[in-house]
Amino acid sequence: MASFFFQQILNLSVFAIVFKLVAPVILAAIGGLFCGKVGVMNIGLEGAMLVSAFFSIVVNAMSGSWILGILAGCAASIFLCLMLAFFTFKYKAHHIVTGFAINTFASAMTIFLLQTFFGSSGSYQPEKVAMIPVVNIPVIENIPVLSVISGHSLIVWMAFFSVVLCSLIFYKTPYGAHLIAVGENVQAARSVGIDEMKIKYSAFVICGILCGIGGAFLSTGATSMFVRDMTAGNGFIALAVISLGNARPYGVLRGGLIFGFANAIAILIETYPGLSVPSQFIQAIPYAVTILMLTVHMLQNSRRMLAPAKG
Amino acid sequence: MDTDIQNVIEMKDMYKIYPNGTVANSGVNFCVKKGEIHALVGENGAGKTTLMKVLFGLEEKTKGAVYISGKEVNFKSPKEAIANGMGMVHQEFMLVPSYTVAQNIALGNEKTKKIFCDRKSEKEQMEKISKQFGLAADFDEPVYRLSVGAKQRIEILKVLYNNAKIIILDEPTAVLTPQETEELFCSLRLMVKDGYTIVLITHKIKEVMDISDSVTVLRNGQTIKTLKTGETNPDEITRLMIGRQLKPKRERVECKDGKTIFEVSHLNVMDRRGALKVRDMSFAIKAGEIFGIAGVEGNGQSELIDAIIGFLKPSSGRIFYNGKDITGISTSDFRKESIGYIPDDRNLRGSSLTQSVAENFIICSHNSGKFNKGPYLNWKEVRKDARDLIAEYEIKADSETALVGSMSGGNVQKVIVAREISKKPNLLIACQPTRGVDISSIEYIHNKIIEQRNEGTAVLLISAELTEIMGLSDKIGMLYNGELVAVRDNDDSVTENEIGKYILNGRQNPSGTEE
């Protein structure tokens, strides 16, 4: 069995699986990070990705353009995120309750539309989907080992790029400084003339865009179909990944990759011929790993908190 | 309009009525001349802070006119006020804890190179300002690690960095030690010399006399008078502020009994992180004696109190009450003793803001039998008792069912004092009993504490306010880094300066007279 895994890792297919799995999670997590920085735990990530997955494939199939598909998905996702922001900031509704409502709404709405327009209650599989392109890097794709970075979807690259961009925005730009200030001490931000609402809503728009891209990838990049509730907890995993990454962009990347590897290994075990372990058990591995990592992370954190402060 | 160019700030006939009907300002006139330090004084709720918030664009005025350097303005946000050369140092620190000092100072006014922050050139400017006005700061240190004095300096650096020429300081000395206050005043004097104009909100008369050029007194939302500081005296300002003379301090009666009520012996207490915060502390308090512990906050006061009331277990040492060992007692058992405890944080520990005055009164006595009727509370009795206490302790509350959260700080404090003193304690533990309350409430609470002492209660007073310690205590313990570095009888030979040296430097007393 060990040689089987070794072989898989050697031919690097495991990386292809990992990247494909983590791209939407990382995108949603970075989006959620923006909301988190302004003080809202956005549990609506799941719903935002789901509506994007639905609308992007519908527009994609109608227009034949993956770009239009992504844009439509982003629009739907931004709309949902802004709805959450509106209820939270304008009407002071509790963001967890609102987020939950948003998720239920997203799930029900997509199923309703699926039923109404495509006559199916389970899935929608258009004949022609313009798939989000795969980036093949010339020369490198033929070099052994290095070829691992070639042949991934454009969205995978966007996910990694979003991490870098997020870090630059947070720690190098005035906008990022204002964003974090609004989340940490809104009075301080207000007192120096920062428009807190502009910052808060903009964070939700950014979150909407990122969830939109992630959602579009699910239906028109990783697969070419929409299945009801196809986000399957990716939004919540994203929240766990944020926590795992200490609410820092590169931490999110690390957390996302850990989750991705756990997931990839589960898939590999599942495909191992002649294994008699129940598949449900194997499918639980990534979640178990996430919980385990969160526990380890919490213990580390509490130890850090208890250490006497310097100076 | 007949505005004088000399007046950098002129506010005419200002009204501010909040949507809930609270009238904060009703006809305030306020003029500040260029290059002066103008003190704005008044009791809590007199409308000082509201007036300044209107001026700074944080609140919208209901009526009135505001002129800055002769030009009529109506700031809708702090941004506009800042753009017009105004700066405000708020009562609460407006700092982002995880940011460095430099990031905090630049917040909202970052310099950029292309789209990125230019931290280097920001820092150059900060260093220049810091040197010019003697405001030392470590720019790369995260703010959460700073002392309150340092945080205060950062706030001032921030307004200077934002190019403010008119600076409003809202009770800046409330959290500072005498030495830190003096340093702050030095910087303010330097700033005025450089052409800055300063408005200082305060209710400490001593500071008004020390540093201001003019003083405007507000009472009940109206301007009472504007005076030249040189032409007035503390008594006049106090009279204008509270609208009457201060009552003389209650006379002390020597207590004959002198039995030791409370004793702490070789107490060591660690905080929750395991750092030793109270070191080998011993003291005893007799009946009819006030033992004051002076010290800068964070020198072990909270850990000492937590050990006494049963929140923390001392690592060694003993605590005795009436000769009984109460070391490591549970908080509920502690509260069953006839001990009054006034916590330092009235909102966190002292009261329940979302409950009524009556409910707050029975927080510890709800099970004592007096207010019970079978398994239920006897609300009739609870309310009657509350009405009596409200009348007796001169608490300003609409009724006994008014929410404590809707009351002013001074009145909340009176509710707590009333609750703790009305149980006729043998021992009263008072922590910062007058922090952030107005002069009349301070006067009232101080007199109540002395009254208790005269009736034979032992009082443990913990305060960072030296005037309070010196004004009330029979004995003073100087606390530094968890240790009582000196204990003195409070006679005329004790000076504020001497206490200040002990609580800031510990045993290395520069004068060399003690220890």
Polypeptide structure, described:
The complex is a heterodimer of chains A (311) and B (515). The model of chain A has no long low-confidence stretch (mean pLDDT 89). Chain A has a single domain, classed as ABC transporter involved in vitamin B12 uptake, BtuC (Orthogonal Bundle). By secondary structure, chain A is mainly alpha-helical. The termini of chain A are far apart. Chain A is built from 13 helices and 4 strands. Helices cover 73% and strands 3% of the residues of chain A. The radius of gyration of chain A is 20 Å and the shape is globular. In chain A, helix 2 (13-37) crosses helix 10 (234-244), helix 3 (45-63) runs antiparallel to helix 4 and helix 3 runs parallel beside helix 5. In chain A, strands 1-4 form a two-stranded antiparallel ribbon. Chain A has a two-stranded antiparallel ribbon with strand order 2-3. Chain B is of the alpha/beta class and 515 residues long. Chain B has 2 domains: 7-242, P-loop containing nucleotide triphosphate hydrolases (Rossmann fold, 3-Layer(aba) Sandwich); 260-349 and 424-505, P-loop containing nucleotide triphosphate hydrolases (Rossmann fold). Helices cover 32% and strands 26% of the residues of chain B. In chain B, the strands form 6 sheets. In chain B, strands 6-9-10-3-11-12 form a 6-stranded mixed beta sheet, sandwiched between helices. A 6-stranded mixed beta sheet of chain B has the order 18-21-22-15-23-24. Chain B has a 4-stranded antiparallel beta sheet with strand order 2-1-4-5, with helices on one face. In chain B, a hairpin with a 5-residue loop joins strand 1 (7-17) and strand 2 (23-33). Chain B is globular, with a radius of gyration of 25 Å. The model of chain B is unreliable at 510-515 (pLDDT under 50). Chain A binds chain B through residues 168, 172-174, 177-178, 180-181, 184-185, 187-195, 306-311, and chain B through 58, 77-82, 88, 90, 92-99, 103-104, 106-110, 112, 115-117, 145, 158, 162, 272-275.
